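Researcher: Structure for this, please.
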Amino acid sequence: MSHHSIEVTDLSFAYPDGTSALGGVTFRITHGESVAIVGANGAGKSTLLMHLNGFLSPSAGSVRIGDAPVTAKTLPDIRKTVGMVFQDPDDQLFMPTVGEDVGFGPMNLGLPDEDIDARVDDALSRVGALRLKDRPPYRLSGGEKRAVAIATVLAMQPSILVMDEPTSNLDPRARRRLIELLATFDHTKIVATHDLDMALDLCERTIVMCDGAVAADGPTRELFTDDALLEAAGLERPLGMRACPVCGATG
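Model: Predicted structure, token format:
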């Protein structure tokens, strides 16, 4: 793949019971962008993310990563390029130790042992979790599990990082550490989140979803001052942009 862009065209998806989750979603994300996808529960955010590396297949429309369509034939290359961090870290942690979890992906790439070890140590160091390498995942806190889940993706050295509600269930300190970590990722980032303050800190562009469709797509700060748009999408201004109840100033 020559360019790690994402192009979604007229994407629609319905679940087997007939429930429509996406209807005619279209956007393009270029290499190096940081993009938030926001919306109320049921807006289609997670369903959309699951199409970006082929966990779900469209009912209609298409997804392209670089110059390749996401199809059964291209999935091995797509999944090397697009790293997905799920909302629940337990969906990604299944090996006896943290180190084995982080090394699982590189091992399946057929890398030599020394390269796998180097990737494991580098990924865990980047998320501040190298000390956890020999621990079983079930003995980790929620924040530690989140960090290790991210490390499992970073070890694959993806060009596109996709995250579903990365700050959910994190305490304020772990949340801040996560935002600082994501800010160091130089490639394309796509973050589906209810945490609009994180989106404001991390993403210059935001896609607002409502009822499975794109309601707005533009500069984050501009969209987050559109109270009518936010209300229609079941959202509220981030705390950092609300008026001070004492002086009336906004962040």
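Researcher: Any notable elements?
Model: The chain has a mean pLDDT of 90. Strands lie at 6-14, 20-29, 34-38, 60-65, 68-69, 82-85, 160-164, 188-192, 205-210, 213-219.
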